[in-house]
Amino acid sequence: MASNFEVIAGDPTSHLIVHVPHSARYLPEEVRREILLDDSDLEAELNEMTDSLTAEMVLHATANLAKPPTLFINKFSRLVIDPERFPDEREIMNQVGMGAVYLKSSTGAQLRDPKFDGAGLISQYFNPYAKALTDLVDAKLQECGKALIIDFHSYRNQQHPNAVNHGQARPPVCIGTDSFHTPASLVELAQSQFARFGESVLNQPYAGTYVPLDFYQLDARVYSIMLENRADLLVDQDLNPGPMFDSYSKALAEFITLAANY
Q1: Which of 8, 30, 164, 173 is the right S-S partner for 71, CB 3.0 to 4.6 Å?
Q2: What are phi and psi of 175, to 5 degrees?
Q3: Are strands 5-8 and 70-74 parallel, antiparallel or unpaired?
Q4: CATH code (residue 129)
Q5: What is the spatial distance between Cα 248 and Cα 197, in angstroms, rounded to a whole number?
Q6: Which distant-in-sequence residues (6+ apart) come within 8 Å of 99 by Cβ?
Q7: pTM for this structure?
Q8: Residues above pLDDT 70, as percent of the chain
Q9: Average pLDDT, stretch 19-34?
């Protein structure tokens, strides 16, 4: 069975991990058969829901760093499993059928049969992904005494219809934070670093940041910050690199370098 994630080792003395959970479009054939959308509608759904070129951006930004972070990249589409959702009743997106295993699409259309049991996908893909990222953070704690996760995303200029956060701000950069795991000084660094692209807003339109559940609200040595970037900073209308791709890559590289002090 092919792994749904890739770990690219960085400098062994770096405690930084860049997590890229939503960049891929790949669906295994057995998963594709579960999806009710025809090929055209599936293509449109992948265009809407994929954080296009976020993995490419991170690879570009870290390629020449003297002390690169470790990269943890999801190789499968979030339509297989969404590794950033809670796999239980805590997940707010269950309200719209878009929990760890999506039953609804971004438009609210039925993505899978309403009676679909996602337990197999959780076991096959979600749990190994979560364990590998947990083990990576644990290794960084053992090696470096701390770990910092930079959780990297993008989002469309317009919110999709099937959402729970309509009406919130959609700035060039959204900085997701956690009261336990995100130091205020790290937030200030991010705000300063990305101010060149315009306004940044905390926790709108997306709030929080990824921390493996074994450490969540428990281990203060695990830091985390989410960078949610409006897609026009990365891509053009055809989902190719946009005019600000290189300048954003430079800013991200600088942020990663400076964040090594946290």
Answers
A1: 8
A2: -105, 115
A3: antiparallel
A4: 3.40.630.40
A5: 8
A6: 82, 85, 86, 87, 91, 93, 118
A7: 0.96
A8: 100
A9: 98
